[in-house]
Design goal:
disordered N terminus, 64% helix, disordered C terminus, Growth Hormone, Chain: A, two-stranded antiparallel ribbon, 17 helices, two-stranded antiparallel sheet, single chain, 3 domains, 583 residues, mainly alpha
Amino acid sequence: MEESKKSCFISDRVDYKGDPADRNTTGGWVPAALIVGIEVSERLSTMGIIVNLVTYLKGTMHQSSTTSSNSTSNVAGTSFLLCLLGGILADSFLGRYWTIAIFSVIHALGTCMLAISAALPELRPSECNLHHDFPLKCEEPSSFQMGILYTALYSMALGVGGIKSSVSGFGTEQFDQNDEKEMSEMAHFFNRFYLIISFGTLLAVTVLVYVQDQVGRSWGYGICSASMFLSIVAFLVGTKRYRYRECTGSPIIQILQVIVAAIRKRKAELPTDLSFLYDKASDKESTISHTDKYSCLDKGAIITGMDRGADGLTISNPWGLCTVTEVEEVKMLIRILPIMASTIIFWTIRAQLLSFSVQQAATMERTIENFPIPPASFNGFFVGSTIITLIMYDRLLPFLRQSSNGVQGFTNLQKIGIAIFLSILGMAAASFAEMKRLEVVRANRGSTSTSSTLPITAFYLLPQFVLVGIGDGFMYTGQLDFFITESPKGMKAISTGLFLTTNALGFFGSSILVTIITKVTGEEVGHGWLLSRINDSRLDFFYALLAVLGFINLVFYLVLASWYKPSPVEDAHQKINGKEEKV
């Protein structure tokens, strides 16, 4: 009787009062769904704004083509970069629940401020006047107007950083990994999480973008804000049903401790018998065996005279002496950094679909049966391709396992490689499509105004959205699973943050590349690749350059992937997944 009573409680989770979590009254699919609801609303709001931001900055705020592109990339990049900060705050101080709650409110307030800035004429410049089919002079926005706009956008970005860093982790905490049934449910949660939020993205780039273009920006942004506030209310309603994990300290501190200890003992010599290195043998399950790589860090585990007290016992000073396991965890994190670096170019290519590709679509014919497709809604083909890829791969997985002796179809490294290859094809297709569009621009130069639609269908842009979209399905799932399975047990949160940081570096890389290309090629029509007006630019050259950079990156990645040896944890993970899916 006493044993059955104990089994109702989960040892490593607590309820909202801080007591051991009851399996029967906390956790499960309902609380997990409320948590995912926050991420769906965040995706709906963020993507509904970001994908159509370049047209707002260019058309309403009168920024140039390159400036509006860079502004969009910077906002998106900052959103992902702040995920690392959000993860540190969640692990070290706030916990995932309060991190989600606080930053969701910040996100909602940011979108609300954006809706107000779009609604009030005083917060945006007046419209351009047309004369003889050419704009006379567009009024530049004031510093105050841009200040309000950027405050709203970066408040939203700050909210994204806190939400994304904690939602997936808090969702998985609603399932007990030591219970066979709940462990199986958690596997389904992982598989469906990205698929569900992708549908939120699809709704954003279609319905919300249409509302912004056809009804009004203030209405579109207002819907974003309202959806976030409603999801916050739903999230708070589930407070008593959630399971919580108490903060255990920041992995950033552990990394710094290992580095500081190794530097302090840099002159010490490693013992010939590595068993003399300091380690705690009390918890054998979490102990990691010593490896020879990055041996300079091993010096942090050398026991010297300064580590012992007068009684000869070892003093526990984590800034002067670390365990072998702590050192090995830092080594594991270092091992995945080169793979992380090789994925940045993919996200740089992804950034173009939110900026220059939208500007291309804005100049082309986009109507179907007299129904106008908003330029930003072409990202719906990207999202749709991602969703179809995930669904088809999930359906084909049993057949792939049969041909590979029960092991999952593609490894995580293979998925990443496929994604990089598809992104190269996408940029090659984008370059050819832009060449065709520029031919039409030149043919209609004398008779077509700068504001009219070119007589060429925007569906020429479809291959670049579809190819990179399929690649995104492989990249996101492969990269996320790789970072989680290859990172040490105590650093899963920071590994997720690093994964999202690659997205940020890709968007910032796009801004840097655009700035460099603009300075190198100049701003003269006929020579400059990226000018203030897209019809005067040579965007085909820019896309071709990205394809070349992607190919060089692919070669670099293949070398790294061939050298990389997956940890035993990942091999076991793949086999377990194969076994679970069969059951």
